[in-house]
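Dear support,

I submitted the protein below through the web form. The confirmation email said the job was done, but the results page showed an empty box. After a refresh the structure appeared. I'm attaching both so you can tell me whether what I see now is the final result or a partial one.
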Amino acid sequence: MDRLLDARELAKAYGSGAKALRILDGISFSVSKGEFVSIVGPSGCGKTTLLMALAGLMKPDSGSILFQGTPLNGPSPGISVVFQDYSRSLFPWKTNLDNILFGMIRNPSMSRADKRRRGLELMDAVGLKGFDAHYPWQLSGGMQQRVAIARGLAAESELLLLDEPLAAVDAQTRADMQDLLLELAARFNQTCILVTHDVDEAVYMADRVVVLTRRPTRVDHEIPVDLGTRRDQITTREDPRFLEIRHDVMAAIRRFRAEVPLAEKA
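What the results page shows now:
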């Protein structure tokens, strides 16, 4: 596989001097083109901080990020982000279609007609055919997140970063959206990095799981998810290998949690 992204010894702290709060402490990992990588770790370890650095939205204090072999020093048209809070990331005054078309704003080579055609195709792909003239506030939470995902895909970026995109939807919608994301990633050959607190979700969706330590955060280990490309909410989750990987990840996170002083847990 072609290497798409390299994170090398990333460090980030908030504040300075003796009161500085170290968040990231030398994180290194790579992502290849076409991979779906999940990042998990104990609560508060800096997963979102890491994702913002990978998006070029936050500069690390030290270390480097190479995207397609070039240093990443800011936002890149090759990287898109789907945020957890869809209600704040979508424009309420724009229709659902116009929200999706906004994802193509950095593609001046496409005509307005081609963008509209592409937008309608994506609405169909995420199961929202016929809702193009509606507004986000007229949709359920799960449907709004589908619009946000379609907008991320509309940019036709090389890398899609997913920051807890399904955390705010109900359990059944979450399962449906997991399958939808996997289907879309395969259909559009989309490289994805998913940050999630849900260990089952991380294992179910990924080709590889990156497990982070507690703060100050490093990569503890990585686990290849050798469960094939076709996943099923029932049979995959009952697969002994799925349960083995889930146990590995859960045990690591519980161990990191146990290491936290009681004062920090409160």
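Response: this is the final, complete result; the empty box was a page-load delay. The chain has a mean pLDDT of 89.
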